[in-house]
Design brief:
Chain lengths: 273, 237
């Protein structure tokens, strides 16, 4: 072969060698192997929904319900500067959902109803269809959201405290005023992209929910600091049942853990054996 | 070693000049001082002082690695493709400075399945549907009647308006919503109770185009400046 031809071939070949020798951009290694996944997405969403039930009931009964008796106020416009109040339970959940979205765990959380205070929150489509079943038997419903490629679960949201019933029945915008204790007032909807989760991913989901709870509760405590006209409750280790007190975020979360941890731990330990 | 044929000297010289010019242009156009020449259009209101890197972060790896990875992806020997040059701008880029706890229409709410139909008409899951960048304005969506996609059933008990919300909706006066209510709910102001006191559409359009804020000069949360945003990144590291 002529030297010129060899040179030409080398000129073509060298850039290719240079290109391949870089090794490419390293691939992300976040994927877990199928064998690492010990929980189905349904199991995990049931676990976190259970934590949510306990948290919401505790907030509604022990903070909103008892707090109102101490003269504390809770309002849908609680974030406005001229409104000196705390978040209503539905807005507490929305705060948790917003916080979850800020961390890397791809978990979605929503609250809806067939008779919402804000009519824009009424279930439609697949959710409306499944909510009818939930109202009937209170059993969770699961489906795969084809559009977003997300595993979706819906869980009954019950009127678990007197405050739920009285506030919704008396609200000026209510579309239903005969709610009773124990009624299915709505449903939480949860979404996650994978069909099964590793132990680590499951704990991350549970932690992201717990962090969301602390974040929104801390925001409430921050709003209290800015109160000018209203009496500020003392923040420490006491609860509104004892007087004009509110627990710190740590005390609140500790109580949630005490109430919910047995069920969750049982599931986690069983999977880790 | 390389002997240029006298017949090809002009081509050779042209090639060398082209190569030098290319390198100089590549260098000059990647300088911060020349960003405006590379930009696809002037920045939107409030973003005038941002540098390109605030949204267009460098992609992972060097250019050769990126080329190699994408070729590998094209021939099926790699699962994912990679960004080339700069990373794609996503919702997260916007939220790093603009995320606010009081946002009454946060993007993440609209990923719920029940908004499927509404989102097919106006994609509220992303900022750029209403705020397309590089247009030297605030709001790019037209017409601003998007409230119709979710609030058709709205009724306000003891409606304070002289013409009720229900009547306005029945008459499909969807442009009037924005004449009283700012979409994200961050302004501090008294909402008008008479239609004649609401913000005229021309004033709002001027605001959307980058003019004075007619709702209020006072906002509860202010978006981060580039310096403040950089500080948040440093804290994370």
């Amino acid at each position: 072969m002529k030297t010129k031809t060899i040179l030409k071939l080398l000129t073509l070949f060298m850039p290719l060698v240079a290109l391949v020798s870089c090794g490419g951009v390293p691939e992300e290694k976040t994927e877990t192997t199928k064998s690492d996944n010990v929980f189905s997405v349904a199991q995990v969403l049931e676990m976190v929904a259970k934590e949510n039930d306990v948290t919401r009931t505790l907030y509604t009964k022990a903070i909103v319900g008892k707090g109102k008796k101490q003269g504390m106020k809770f309002d849908e416009d609680w974030r406005k500067d001229d409104v000196e109040a705390g978040p209503l339970p539905a807005l507490f959940l929305r705060g948790v959902a917003s916080s979850i979205r800020k961390n890397p765990v791809p978990l979605g959380l929503y609250l809806g109803s067939d008779f919402p205070i804000n009519k824009a929150n009424k279930f439609e489509g697949k959710q409306a269809e499944l909510f009818k079943k939930i109202k009937h038997d209170q059993e969770p419903q699961f489906f795969f959201d084809e559009d977003q490629k997300l595993h979706t679960a819906m869980f009954a949201d019950l009127a678990s405290a007197g405050a739920c019933v009285s506030c919704h029945n008396d609200h000026p915008q209510t579309s239903k005023s005969d709610w009773k204790l124990g009624d299915v007032m709505g449903a939480t909807t949860w979404q996650y992209p994978k069909d099964s989760l590793s132990y680590k991913e499951t704990v991350a989901v549970l932690n992201s929910y717990a962090k969301g709870t602390v974040d929104i509760y801390m925001e409430y405590l921050d709003e209290i600091k800015a109160f000018r006209k209203s009496d500020k409750p003392e923040i420490g280790d006491k609860w509104p049942a004892e007087g004009n007190y509110l627990p710190t975020a740590e005390v609140f979360l500790d109580s949630v853990k005490k109430l919910s941890s047995y069920e969750t731990m049982k599931n986690l330990v069983a999977a880790n054996k | 070693m390389f002997k240029v044929s006298p017949l090809r000297q002009r081509q050779f010289l042209g090639g060398i000049i082209g190569l030098v010019l290319g390198v100089v242009l590549f260098y000059v156009l990647t300088l911060e001082a020349t960003e405006s020449y590379v930009s696809v259009g002037p920045m939107n209101t409030g973003h005038e002082d941002l540098s390109c890197f605030a949204c267009h972060a460098d992609a992972k790896g060097n250019l050769l690695q990126q080329v190699q990875s994408n070729i590998a992806h094209a021939v099926g020997s790699r699962k994912e493709s990679v960004d080339f040059g700069t990373q794609d701008v996503t919702l997260e880029n916007c939220l790093q400075c603009h995320d606010r706890p009081n946002d009454r229409h946060p993007t993440h709410r609209f990923t719920e399945p029940r908004f499927k139909e509404a989102v097919s008409k106006v994609d509220a899951t992303t900022c750029i549907t209403c705020h397309a960048e590089h247009h030297e304005e605030r709001v790019s969506i037209t017409p601003v009647n998007y409230c119709m996609n979710c609030h058709q059933d709205l009724e306000v008990e003891n409606d304070p308006l002289d013409i009720s919300h229900k009547d306005l909706i029945a008459k499909e006066e969807w442009l009037t919503c924005i004449q009283c209510h700012d979409f994200h709910g961050n302004h501090k102001y008294e909402v008008a109770e008479h239609l004649k006191d609401t913000i005229p559409m021309e004033t709002l359009q001027a605001y959307f185009d980058g003019g004075k804020d007619p709702y209020s000069d006072v906002k509860k949360y202010i978006a981060l400046s580039q310096e403040e945003w950089i500080k948040t990144l440093n804290k994370k590291e």
